[in-house]
């Protein structure tokens, strides 16, 4: 089996169950999940609060469409809106991150009456036709072209290029507060603030894609809070249901008031809504974002000290960490899995992406550091 198959297709590890930050095969082999679940389980696998909420709801009502009031959906909406930055007063549920971003771009165009979308190089916003048009890599787009038009790309993190692109015909600027798929790229100080100022001046909508950065991963509930910037539209998914398929769009009132009709059959189904309510409530009440900040600082410092010049850089925020290697990330991810029972992912050709559940502790962080050191800095590992 090739490295490409291991990362992109079927993996030779059959997972049977999960608990906390660990996954287990049928024979009981334990794997530390340091990213293989794409940030989808911030509370860890099979968290009791989520399991209980889902089991209770599925026993009462599995599904009814969103035209009927359901208490689990109302609870989920209330919990999500309460957890978003002040100013985002309405929300809509969907089934995935790409659907959330698709809706965000539609809402922005209908609310502003404009069409141009500004996106960033190295961005990833999804694989449906609209969100794909705002995604940077040609390999994702070329088989499906022509895509939705009037999308302009600017270099991520370059405030001057962004200012030159945003004008009165701009419907939206869509940005990841930290880029995930593109390599865990952290923007320079002031970049998100500039985006806010430019969209305010022109009447465009500022859309933050927090599908990977949200749900406490960066040390705040939302990465944009680290910069003190509130968007007009915030999208989330992945960890929103702690492993169940759900996405959401939270918007300011002017977007909600100006948005045209949009819906989905499974929007806010009772079971996934129960998972959302349990996940968001537990993250907030048990202060897991603060734990992510603490553990992220610890893990980053330990990685930098152990790996040193054997890697180009360790970057990110909280428990969204990228290790830029001097070799291919696919091979390192494979070695971690096969030799050390740790699951991680590449983010591009040379960046290893670490997205462990927020519930990891120092011992589990040390396990990850020791394994990675043995692979990419064996001399340092031998000395220790």
UniProtKB/TrEMBL annotation:
Q: Does the keyword Cytoplasm apply?
A: yes
Give the SUPFAM superfamilies listed for this entry. Answer: PLP-dependent transferases (SSF53383)
In which residues is pyridoxal 5'-phosphate bound? 97-98, 124, 209-212, 265
Q: Which residues carry this modification: N6-(pyridoxal phosphate)lysine?
A: 238
Enzyme Commission code: 2.6.1.118, 2.6.1.124
**GO terms under cellular component:** cytoplasm
Tell me which InterPro entries the record gives: Aminotrans_3, Aminotrans_3_PPA_site, Class-III_PLP-dep_AT, LysJ, PyrdxlP-dep_Trfase, PyrdxlP-dep_Trfase_major, PyrdxlP-dep_Trfase_small
Source species, domain of life: Archaea
Q: Please give the catalytic activity noted in the UniProt record.
A: [amino-group carrier protein]-C-terminal-gamma-(L-ornithyl)-L-glutamate + 2-oxoglutarate = [amino-group carrier protein]-C-terminal-gamma-(L-glutamyl-5-semialdehyde)-L-glutamate + L-glutamate; [amino-group carrier protein]-C-terminal-gamma-(L-lysyl)-L-glutamate + 2-oxoglutarate = [amino-group carrier protein]-C-terminal-N-(1-carboxy-5-oxopentan-1-yl)-L-glutamine + L-glutamate
What does the entry comment about cofactor binding?
A: Binds 1 pyridoxal phosphate per subunit.
Instruction: Write down the top EC class of this protein.
Output: transferase
Asked whether the keyword Repressor is assigned, the reply is: no
Locations listed in the record? Cytoplasm
Requisite cofactors: pyridoxal 5'-phosphate
Fill in the subunit field for this protein: Homodimer.
This chain's function reads: Involved in both the arginine and lysine biosynthetic pathways.
| PANTHER family linked | ACETYLORNITHINE AMINOTRANSFERASE, MITOCHONDRIAL (PTHR11986:SF79), AMINOTRANSFERASE CLASS III (PTHR11986)
HAMAP family recorded for this chain? LysJ_aminotrans_3
Q: Any idea what this protein is called?
A: Putative [LysW]-aminoadipate semialdehyde/glutamate semialdehyde transaminase
Q: Give the organism the record lists.
A: Natronorubrum texcoconense
Gene encoding it?
A: lysJ
């Amino acid at each position: 089996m090739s490295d490409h198959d291991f990362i992109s297709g079927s993996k030779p590890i059959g997972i049977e169950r999960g608990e906390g930050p660990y996954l287990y095969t049928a024979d009981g082999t334990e794997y530390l999940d340091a990213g293989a679940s794409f940030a989808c389980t911030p509370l860890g696998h099979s968290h009791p609060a989520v399991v209980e909420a889902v089991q209770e709801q599925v026993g009462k009502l599995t599904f009814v469409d969103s035209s009927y009031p359901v208490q689990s959906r109302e609870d989920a909406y209330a919990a999500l809106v309460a957890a978003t930055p002040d100013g985002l007063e309405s929300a809509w549920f969907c089934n995935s991150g790409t659907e959330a971003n698709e809706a965000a771009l539609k809402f922005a165009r209908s609310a502003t009456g404009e069409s141009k979308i500004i996106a960033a190089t190295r961005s990833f916003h999804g694989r449906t036709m609209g969100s794909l048009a705002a995604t940077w890599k040609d390999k994702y787009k070329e088989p499906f072209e022509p895509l939705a038009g009037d999308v302009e790309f600017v270099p991520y993190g370059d405030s001057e290029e962004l200012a030159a692109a945003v004008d009165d015909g701009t419907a939206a600027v869509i940005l990841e507060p930290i880029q995930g798929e593109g390599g865990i790229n952290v923007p320079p100080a002031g970049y998100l603030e500039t985006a806010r100022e430019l969209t305010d001046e022109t009447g465009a909508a500022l859309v933050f894609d927090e599908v990977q950065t949200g749900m406490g991963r960066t040390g705040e509930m939302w990465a944009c809070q680290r910069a003190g910037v509130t968007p007009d539209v915030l999208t989330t998914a992945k960890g929103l249901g702690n492993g169940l398929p759900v996405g959401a769009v939270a918007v300011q009132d002017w977007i909600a008031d100006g948005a045209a009709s949009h819906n989905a059959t499974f929007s806010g189904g009772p079971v996934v809504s129960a998972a959302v309510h349990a996940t968001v409530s537990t993250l907030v009440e048990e202060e897991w974002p603060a734990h992510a900040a603490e553990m992220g600082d610890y893990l980053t410092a330990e990685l930098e000290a152990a790996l040193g010049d054997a890697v180009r850089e360790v970057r990110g925020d909280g428990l969204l960490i990228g290790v830029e290697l001097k070799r291919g990330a696919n091979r390192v991810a494979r070695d971690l899995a096969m030799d050390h029972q740790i699951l991680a992912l590449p983010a591009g050709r040379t960046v290893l992406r670490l997205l462990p559940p927020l519930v990891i502790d120092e011992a589990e962080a040390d396990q990850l550091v020791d394994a990675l050191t043995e692979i990419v800095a064996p001399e340092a590992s031998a000395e220790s």
